[in-house]
Structure formats: structure tokens, C-alpha cells
Amino acid sequence: MTSQKPKILLLGTIDNQPARDEWQNLSSIGDIVETKATSREEFIKECENGTFDGVVAAYRTFPSVSITGRIDEELVKNLPKSLKFICHNGAGYDQVDVQACTSRGIHVSNVPTAVDDATADTNMFLILGALRNYNTSMLALRKGKWRGNPPPPLGHDPEGKVLGILGMGGIGKNLKKKAEAFGMHVQYHNRKQLNEELSGGAKYCTFDDLLGTSDVISLNLPLNRNTHHIISTSEFEKMKPGVIIVNTARGAVMDEAALVHALENGKVWSCGLDVFEEEPKIHPGLVANPQVMLVPHMGTWTVETQTAMEKWNINNMRAAIETGKLKSPVPEQKDMA
Question: Which of 46, 108, 109, 213 has its CA at 20 to 30 Å from residue 333's CA atom?
């Protein structure tokens, strides 16, 4: 007798034991299947051969893009007709073409809040490191040169500095609280102004005003067609001389070549980056500049946060199978039936 349970597809790995236990518990409501593909071509071939026929929901990780490539219109056309849900384990979901999924009737979810604390912590680490110019002397120290010879210019205190947050979502709001603990004054820009309660009293300003009046600018907005290279040459020209830039969002919201030029001409004094345009490749001008703090996309790289994200995504999978609805659908699909 064949199983009447729906199939559940795992794209990527679940790395933390408590979450792995919860994943295995899904076998009570669905048959778990995995891909054997190591490339997009092989994955599409599996789809064409019917390997995933009957799959209703797919759990995907950020690194699984190395197997499937971006979930774009081409890939969506090849996915099994039975697939109704894609559960993405991450807050940012630029690897998934939501419009293509919507056109095929596929519901997409993300993990919108579990990442907030850890990412904002990384954000604050980069702000402090860039302000204090720690990186130059950290590099010199490992070469046996103490602070460096000559020593680097003095850094800056966070107290009294204006932090401009571009994108006041969950991470931006979390960062605001942390920055204020260090005595920073916070202003923000969003597509829409938040009410006083949601903004926590932060000052709302226009995009150009944020660029022109902030001592530190933090990028905390999602990557999409409208935000790609939202910070480029013309935006750097509007900033204060000696501004500091921090990016924990997605690399492509900022034009890296323009950033390198702004660092070289002194418009940008220092920056802290956790994300890059062509990860894992990094612009050589960033690698070569000691004024740049580089972190290899580790904003959520903690046991606690990774486990919380995996559990959240598994709960999306469970809700999809048991109720036909997702716990946290992406905003673009909030009205999707």
C-alpha cells in the first residue's frame, strides 16, 4: 500500500540538533525527500524526471543556491506541479523570485524576526569597530607591529554621533535600541514613515536628508529591484565628508566599486561589511584597504540564532502541511489566497 502522506523536500541542510529532531518529527505528517543534485542542471533534471512529483512543500537554506541557483522563473517552471509552498530559512529572500512563485500559485515564507538580535549585534560591532578604526591596528598587531608604524589616526566615540538607519524593519529597530545605549542619536528613512510606537521615537527623514546629515549610515533594507545599488556614486556625493558606512543587509544594495572610490578619495572614512555583492568573492579594493572591517556574512552565525531560524522554518513547513497556510508569508503575498 502506497503512502498517502504528502512529500516534503529538503534543499540544503539542517545543522543544529534540536532543529534536526523537530525536522525528523515532520515524518509523521509527510515523507521527507532530498535532492542528490550538485548543480542547477542536475536539479532541473531531477525535476524533469519526476523525482519530486508529489512534493507539496520545500524547505530551502541560503547556501542551497549553490545547488539550485536562484529560484527564478526558469526554475519555477520546472518545479513539480504539486509544489504549493517554499519555506526559506532566512529573513532576506532575494534568492527567490516571489512574483514568479505567485504566478504559479506557490506560497513563499521567510524567517522575519529570529535574525534580529544577532544581526543587530553584528551591526553594532561593525559600527564600533569602524568608528574606532580598530581594524588597522588589529592587522598590524598580527604582523608584530603593535598598533602600527606609524600608528593609525585616532578613532571616534559613538556618543553624540548621528546614526542614519536606511530600512527600519525588525533589525533596524533592534539596532536603534543598541545604538542608543552607546549614546548615538538615531534617525531613519523608510518607504513609509512609522508611527511613534513602531519607530521608538526615532526621527524620520527623507532619503537625501539621511545621507547628508548622518555620521554613520547603516544599511538594513531588503534587496530587490528597487534597492539594487541604492547607494552608489551620486549618493556618496551627498554624504558628509568622513562618513562611516555599515552593511549587514545584502551586498548589492550598495555599489562596491563606488564604495572603493569613496574610500580612496576620503569621502568615506571607514566601513564595516558583513555582506558582499558577489559572495564569496570580495572586491579587491575592499580587501586591500585596512580601513575596511570585513566579516564573511556571519550576522546570524550563532548556535542560538541558527537553531531558532531552523525551528521557525520547520514550523512554517508544519503549518503548510497541516493547515495549508504559512506562519510567516512574505509581505508581497500577504493577500494571496
Answer: 46
* Distance between CA atoms of residues 210 and 165, nearest Å: 8
pLDDT value at residue 335: 86
User: What span, in angstroms and rounded, lies between the C-alpha atoms of 248 and 68?
Assistant: 24
Distance CA 232, CA 304 (A): 35
Q: Residue 5: CA atoms inside 13 Å, Cβ hemisphere, count?
A: 14
Q: Which of 250, 283, 310, 318 is catalytic?
A: 250
| Buried-exposed string 310-322: b where 16+ CB fall within 10 A, e elsewhere | bbbbbbbbbbbbe
Q: Cβ distance 165 to 220 under 8 Å? A: yes
Cell output for 95: 534568492
Query: What's the whole-number mean pLDDT along residues 274-279?
Result: 96
Where in the chain does DSSP place strands (E)? 7-11, 31-34, 55-61, 85-89, 107-109, 162-166, 185-189, 203-204, 216-219, 243-247, 268-273, 292-294
DSSP structure string for 28-75: GTSEEEE---SSHHHHHHHHHTTTTTTEEEEEEEGGGHHHH--B-HHH
With beta carbons less than 8 A apart as the criterion, state whether 215 and 191 touch: no
Q: How far, in Å, CA of 11 to CA of 314, rounded?
A: 13
Condensed to tens digits (0 to 9), the pLDDT of residues 133-171 reads 999 999 999 999 999 999 999 999 999 999 999 999 999
Which of 40, 104, 261, 297 is labelled catalytic? Answer: 297
Amino acid of residue 263: L
In degrees and rounded to multiples of 5, residue 134 shows phi and psi of: -65, -30
**Tally of CA atoms within 13 A in the half-sphere of 333 that contains its CB:** 26
Question: Is 261 tagged catalytic?
Answer: no
Contact 260, 245 (CB under 8 A): no
Q: Which residue type does 143 have?
A: K
Residue 191: active-site member: no
